């Protein structure tokens, strides 16, 4: 059930009946030269589309947080940066309102690495406030499953490009897809470091991506997320 389309009467109807809300969180950031700036918004939205089809009567899907924290690639055109401090508070206050409205399971579905510190802290704050927080970083948590479909991963790399092809192919220009296998020797912070480590705002090999791989990634990741939610609802939270 998508919150953005509900009126207040319909929202009231589900309060107390549905206890789980998914908040997709993305960012606006350069993704190679071939992918749209909204890549990290489009992929979590592609995942919730699939969840909506299978369990839309059991979860509320909140509107996406479109902006996130962009530091490493801030020097590339089209990147919009929200500080970790502001993003943390923003996510916390969205979650807090939803907990107050009766949604005790807050699912933070993240599409962007730079958001992780904010989501981690906001998640802890929301748990302290009384919610149960389930965080998904799709490309990290389901790496094993993704690597059964793709040879490699990367920022605008094979997996991410494939996933965007599955949801927004007309906005991808595969004639501009490239490979960049450069990696920093350590976690080095320096102004505009992304110009060195993420040449063309890219890591990995985008040329190996395909729409078919992307469909499979989104299917598999959404399926794994739903399996985990089923276990959370039964309170089977350890393996
Ligand atoms: Zn991305």
TrEMBL record:
Gene3D superfamilies: Creatininase. The keyword Zinc applies. Pfam families: Creatininase. GO terms for molecular function: hydrolase activity, acting on carbon-nitrogen (but not peptide) bonds, in linear amides; metal ion binding. InterPro entries: Creatininase-like_sf, Creatininase/forma_Hydrolase. Keywords: Hydrolase, Metal-binding, Zinc. It comes from the Bacteria. Signal peptide: none annotated. Its cofactor is Zn(2+). One of its GO terms (biological process) is riboflavin biosynthetic process. The keyword Coiled coil does not apply. Coiled coil: none annotated. Belongs to the creatininase superfamily. This is Creatinine amidohydrolase. It comes from Anoxybacter fermentans.
């Amino acid at each position: 059930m998508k919150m953005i389309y509900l009126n207040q009467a319909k929202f009231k109807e589900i309060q107390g009946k549905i206890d789980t809300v998914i908040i997709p969180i993305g960012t606006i950031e350069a993704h190679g030269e071939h992918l749209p700036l909204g890549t990290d918004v489009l992929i979590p939205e592609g995942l919730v589309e699939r969840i909506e089809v299978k369990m839309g009567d059991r979860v509320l899907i909140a509107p996406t947080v479109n902006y996130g924290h962009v530091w490493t690639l801030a020097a590339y055109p089209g990147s919009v940066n929200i500080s970790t401090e502001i993003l943390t508070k923003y996510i916390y206050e969205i979650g807090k309102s939803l907990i107050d409205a009766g949604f005790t399971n807050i699912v933070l579905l993240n599409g962007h690495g730079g958001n992780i510190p904010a989501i981690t802290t906001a998640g802890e704050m929301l748990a302290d406030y009384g919610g149960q927080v389930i965080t998904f970083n799709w490309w990290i948590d389901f790496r094993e499953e993704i690597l059964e479909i793709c040879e490699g991963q990367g920022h605008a790399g094979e997996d991410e490009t494939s996933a965007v092809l599955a949801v927004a192919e007309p906005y991808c220009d595969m004639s501009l897809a490239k490979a960049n296998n450069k990696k920093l020797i350590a976690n080095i912070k320096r102004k505009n470091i992304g110009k060195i480590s993420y040449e063309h705002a890219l890591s990995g090999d985008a040329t190996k991506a395909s729409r078919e791989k992307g469909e499979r990634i989104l299917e598999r990741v959404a399926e794994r997320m739903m399996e985990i939610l089923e276990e959370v609802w039964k309170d089977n939270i350890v393996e």
